[in-house]
Amino acid sequence: MRTTTPPTPTRERRRAASPVPPAPRSARTRSRLREADAQHRLSRIQVHNWGTFNGYHDLPVPRDGLILTGPSGSGKSSLLDALSAVLVPAKNRRFNAAAQDSGATDRARTILSYVRGAYRRTTDGATGEVVTDFLRAGATRSGVALTFSQGGEGAESLTLIVLFHVRAGTNAVDAVAQLLLMAEGSPDLTTLLPYLAHGIDRRAIRRDHPEGLRLFDKYEAFAAAFRRRLGLSSEVAQRLLHRTQAAKSLASLDTLLRDFMLDEPETLRLADAAVEQFGELREAHAAVVEAREQERALAPLSELSRTIIDAGAQQAHAEALAAAVPGYVHHLRLTRLEEERDRAAAAVSGLEAEVARAAAREDAAVADLDLLRAERHGAAGAGLPAATARLEAAQVEAARRADAVRALERCLSELDATAPADARAHHELQAVLAAEDSSLRGQLASLRAERDTAGLAALDLKRRVDALTTEREQILASRSAMPPRLLGARDLIATVIGQPASVLPFAGEILRVVDGEEDWRVAIEAVAGGFATHMLVPDRLYRDVLAAVDTLHLGARLHFDRLLPAAQAARGVPRVPGGALARKIEPIPGTEHADWLNVELMRRFDHLCVEGAEELAAVDRGVTRSGQVKSSRTAHLKDDRRDPADPRAWVIGVDARERLELVVDELAARAREKAGADARLDGLEAREAVLRDRLAACQRATEFTWEQIDVASAASQAERWARRCEQLRDAQPGLAQLDARIETARQVLSRARQTLRELSASLVREAENRDAATAELDRLREREQTLRAGALTPGDEEEALILSAPESGPMRVELDERFRSQRRRRPNLEEISEVAARVSKEIVEQREAAARSEARAVASAVVTMSTFVATWPETRGQVLPEIDYLDEFLAILARLQSDDLPRHERRFTALLRSQSRQNIGHLASEIRRAVSQVRARIGPVNDALATTEYSPGHHLRIKVEERRLPVVNDFLRDLATIASGSLELDDESPDRAEERYALLGRIMSRLSSSEPRDAAWRRQCLDTRLHVAFRAEERDVDGVVVDVYEGASGLSGGQRQKLVVFCLAAALRYQLTDPGNQLPGYALVVLDEAFDKTDADYTRAGLEVFRGFGFQLLLATPMKMLQTLEEHVGGAAMVTNTPEGDASALSMVLFDAPARRGAWAAPERPGDLFEGFDLEAL
């Protein structure tokens, strides 16, 4: 409805009583009038179905401003909120903010509550809940339109419209559909309502209004468009105007000036730009890091490649040496054979002469003896020689039998017996020897069985002692009580992947039995003992270990587990009861992998611990104290291959020192047992030796016949022939002397013959040596010629190696040294084969050692290449983790070292320099300049305050003081550290650059973080509005400070409102007035109960500030303030409501404009605004 009431008589009288004609207008005044006409002022408010304003309402707004008044709850704030729904972004919008002490929004008021027409809250009789009653429950259409107009001729108008629609049956806040429109002129809202019959028909609106009407889907575009048209400088100005509506809640000068007068500082944008550009630097650094990591990952290949090449060269050299040995031996043998042939030929030549001389001497001795024998034969006749021959034969036989008796006595001495004196005694001795032989054989058989048993026991003890000794050494070396084979396998893997063995723990090494649960040790070992021997592999080493295990021969059965992150491993872990075995084991405190182990224990060992078989039968998974394991309803296991109660068999939570003590104690005990077993075996072997000797003696004694040992009869026969010879010599004197000469001649002949025999034998040997050497030389040379001629037969290939012997050079020298080193001299002919075998074995061993070194290097290289490809999978298209690609990997390494890494480092250095200098340096400079910039921004506000008295003869001036927190100073120091390094980059070390980058990275990370703590830090450091504090000084005409206001402390409510209103008006003028203009382009300022705490003088002074700055006021106020406010506006609207509060209405009164004086001067005081209205009835 539109209501216009003629001016009151009081107003007429005041205007008629004015005797002063208008003064001539100055240029400044004319300029101000032109600016006043160009201002965009609110001229019309239209609402449909808004809150308790049912249906359509049209409220004209005078160009000089409007008062909204009426009882509490009548709907004044609803109309102001309608303006906010159009002019304020949803993120900044606060409905009914003036009613809240803190200025916060009324959460009960939303777009939905206004569209639905929420008007009261009642209690549901059925549920007792507090519910909201709505005026419009079905499908509802709603809208708000605000028309802004310029003054004077050719004035333009612009209408901002928001249309709403809510479907029937929904009261969700986000269920409100909305359309934003901007229309030229001042169209009626009612013309658009038909398009909301069944929702918002955007297509129809565009079709029917192709010109003069713009539609917007996003508020940001809508706001940007109307800000340009209405002269609003920024979204900050929008927020400030909205906050002005609740000016009475602005209690702090700092908050007002920081949040609503000052724009968002450039430092925030610079920081955002720095964070965005840091991504490029981060990428450059990542490229450097990746190149360094790649170079580091491939660096071992250089040494490994050299090792492979050297090992290959050593193998090739060894193979060449081995191939040269046969030829070398061949030539060495030829040389030795030639030497032997020449030596033997020389010896034969010398021996032949010596043999001839010896033969001549023998012939002379034979002749001499023959002459003497002939002489004696002639002198003695025929009887003496025959008797002498018989005597000599008898003496020989007697000596032979005496030797036999002595041999028999030696045998019998071992049997504690004596030689027989006669044939009968010999026969008895044979019977005794036969019995002794049988007895000794039986004793030997029994003793051998006992010895074999003792030998096996001693061997078993030796193996046990050796095993314990090895275990002791491994425990000392590894400080672990795990089985030796597993420790050896782990050490081998750790060596190949280049990590200490400690990073690959066995589960049992980092688990322990929970205190108080030792009674269940047997059950724990039975169930979890296998898992305890699992090697745990960190996720980062998984691929390295995988490749190493696949390449190596471990000599053990190894089970290893990959340590996934605990959160990932914990998926699907069942709940485990308190009596489960998993509750009796725990990770050792401080263990790195405790989280993963806890998850695995719960997953694997939910077996219930029960006392015996009866209880075990009643559970699905369990274990008894004795170690019987039930893993399902059907599967059972009890492993008694080792004693589960033996601490030596435990693998869970065993202290290495305790295990070492057990091992040392057992080793000592087994060593003592072994010493006893060895002593017993030695005794049995000694007894066996004695029995064997006795048996051998018995067997030898049995072999002697009586005729072989009858010395008495042989001695008697020799004595008889000796007497006969004596008789014959006595009968012929002179024979004794002749016999002596014959004996001498015989001895000479014997010596000559012995010499001849020896010389002849030597001659034969040397001749044989000569002939053999010659024959072997001929054979070898013939064979060499055959091989050189190429006439090979199958099987000759190896023999053909004799042709490959080096005749000179380093290899010949080396073979000479090798062959000489075996005997410390050159080997002779008989030693060549033995020495050659040793040299060949030594060469083979060296070749095998080189092959093992090459194999280890190849395995390590494959692991390195596999790790590289696994870490950087994109390289798979170029290379494969195979030894055949080693050169390609080395090429990648060379490229990294010569090109990629230096190039990435140069780019990183350049970016670090530019970002440090440009972004960080600029940001630091802006932060440091903030105080001076704020002072410059406050200057125009102070200029505005200087045009209006704050109190009679006094003006207000705002002072800016620096207030930097320590965190800001720390931040600036960090920025200085980063920026200062950019000037020294030519001499900057990589470590220094990394330090600056790390500091820059930490700062960028915090600047980009969404964590509340980092966000607060970012605001403290970058929002330079927080780096200053504001103080208002009240000064007299001479500029002397008469009062100082900091914040609002110590001020009454009215004083605080007055201070804030003055500064707010100045801030608005600063935000809304273009440089060089006197008036703002956008004039509307809405104040809701802004002067509820001030007296009339304070109120007039505050309003005069707004009028003096050229603002159009829309005031919502209680009726008690009407007389004070009426002279500052062009009209008033009374808002009323029914007693039930469900139907608001408007009554309008327009005042005559005081000849446009409101544009530059305060009007005369009018009379009673609502004179003629029944205010009591209202």
TrEMBL record:
<keyword id="KW-0742">SOS response</keyword>
<feature type="coiled-coil region">
    <location>
        <begin position="711"/>
        <end position="790"/>
    </location>
</feature>
<dbReference type="GO" id="GO:0006302">
    <property type="term" value="P:double-strand break repair"/>
</dbReference>
<dbReference type="Pfam" id="PF13555">
    <property type="entry name" value="AAA_29"/>
</dbReference>
<dbReference type="GO" id="GO:0009432">
    <property type="term" value="P:SOS response"/>
</dbReference>
<dbReference type="InterPro" id="IPR027417">
    <property type="entry name" value="P-loop_NTPase"/>
</dbReference>
<dbReference type="Pfam" id="PF13558">
    <property type="entry name" value="SbcC_Walker_B"/>
</dbReference>
<protein>
    <submittedName>
        <fullName>ATPase</fullName>
    </submittedName>
</protein>
<feature type="region of interest" description="Disordered">
    <location>
        <begin position="1"/>
        <end position="38"/>
    </location>
</feature>
<dbReference type="GO" id="GO:0000731">
    <property type="term" value="P:DNA synthesis involved in DNA repair"/>
</dbReference>
<keyword id="KW-0175">Coiled coil</keyword>
<keyword id="KW-0234">DNA repair</keyword>
<keyword id="KW-0227">DNA damage</keyword>
